[in-house]
Each structure stands twice: as C-alpha cells, then as structure tokens.
Amino acid sequence: MTRKSSTRLPAHEVGSGNVFADLGLPNPEERMLKAGIVAELHRSIKDRGLTQVKAAKLVGISQPDLSRLLRGDFEDYSAERLLKMLTAFAQDVEIVVKPHRRTGEAGRITFRPTAV
C-alpha cells in the first residue's frame, strides 16, 4: 500500500484588489482605471461582432494600435481618450464624484461598467 504525500500549497498573500499596486507600479489607480476601460472596449467590440479593422476605424486608430491596446499596452493613451473611444460604441460615460467613506483618507478612483 502506497501512502499519498500531503501536498502543501505555496504561501500566498491577499492582494489589495489592484494588481498594479501589488506589483509596485507607478500610478496604480490610473492603470487600473485604464485596464477597466479597455476591458469594456474589448467587450463592446466582441458584442458587436466587429473585426479589429472595423473597430479601429470606429475609434479612430490603426488596427495594430488597437491590437496593442487590447493586449494591455495602454500607456500611450489617456483615460479621457479611452473613455471617448467607448462613446464611439454608443456608450454613455458618466463620472460621479462623491465623498470618501472614511474621513482622513484620500479618495479613490474606480471604474464600474453597468451590467448588460
């Protein structure tokens, strides 16, 4: 009879909810915002069954640039420009400013797409 060795899982840390902050990258909130916007762009393209060529023409960039953007290379794009791209897909963008829940702490920036 062979004994099964007990398998230990590697130690892990609970993340902050922002992978960019966890990796120590600069401007983690801005990066997280842009990543959320790009994910929504990707969903909009997929939902409409568009090719990258057609989608790129719709948002006013080249297909290779759109491809890079959808692969997470969004450093060259401002959040404002990415939000403007969303409006090309008949999406309304609403920015809401509200008091932070905890006094004495800096506010935060979040992106919350509506459920479809």
Automatic annotation (TrEMBL):
* GO MF, one annotated term: DNA binding
What InterPro entries does this protein map onto?
Cro/C1-type_HTH, HigA2-like_HTH, Lambda_DNA-bd_dom_sf
Which CDD domains did the record assign? Answer: HTH_XRE
Record's protein name: XRE family transcriptional regulator
Q: What domain of life does the UniProt record list for this protein's source? A: Bacteria
Residue ranges occupied by any HTH cro/C1-type domain in the UniProt entry? 46-96
Q: Name one Pfam family in it.
A: HTH_37
Q: Which SUPFAM superfamilies match?
A: lambda repressor-like DNA-binding domains
